[in-house]
């Protein structure tokens, strides 16, 4: 079998597992550093929140603009 840059199937599996561990670590860092900070800021000042209806309206408008440009 040809494993490309890898000498064996087990090297392929190990590389895949390392990649998954790195991704999981990046997600954990994002949750701890960015998401937790945003949550804390909203808890401290709930007035900073944007209503979901406003967010969805903005997303819909942007989607419509992109569709119109493609047409």
Detailed description of the structure:
The chain is mainly alpha-helical. It has one domain (9-70). The chain contains 2 helices and no strands. The protein has helices at residues 9-44, 52-70. It is flat, with a radius of gyration of 22 Å. The protein starts with 8 loop residues before the first helix and ends with a helix. The model has no long low-confidence stretch (mean pLDDT 94).
Structure, briefly:
The chain contains two helices and no strands.
Q: What percent of residues are in strands?
A: under 5%
- What is the arithmetic mean of pLDDT? 94
Morphology = flat
How far is the N terminus from the C terminus? 47 Å
Count every beta strand, where a strand is a DSSP E run of 2 or more residues.
Answer: 0
Order of helices and strands: HH
Task: Return residue spans where pLDDT drops below 50 for at least 5 consecutive residues.
Answer: none
Q: Which sheet architecture does the biggest sheet show?
A: none
Number of helices: 2
* Radius of gyration using CA atoms only: 22 Å
Helix fraction? over 70%
Our count of domains comes out at: 1
Sheet/helix structural class: mainly alpha
Supply database-style keywords.
71 residues; mainly alpha; 77% helix; 0% strand; flat
């Amino acid at each position: 079998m040809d494993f490309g840059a890898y000498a064996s199937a087990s090297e392929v599996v190990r590389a895949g597992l390392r990649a998954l561990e790195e991704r999981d670590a990046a997600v954990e860092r994002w949750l701890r550093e960015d998401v937790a900070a945003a949550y804390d800021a909203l808890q401290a000042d709930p007035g900073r929140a944007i209503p979901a209806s406003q967010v969805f309206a903005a997303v819909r408008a942007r989607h419509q603009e992109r569709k119109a440009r493609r047409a």
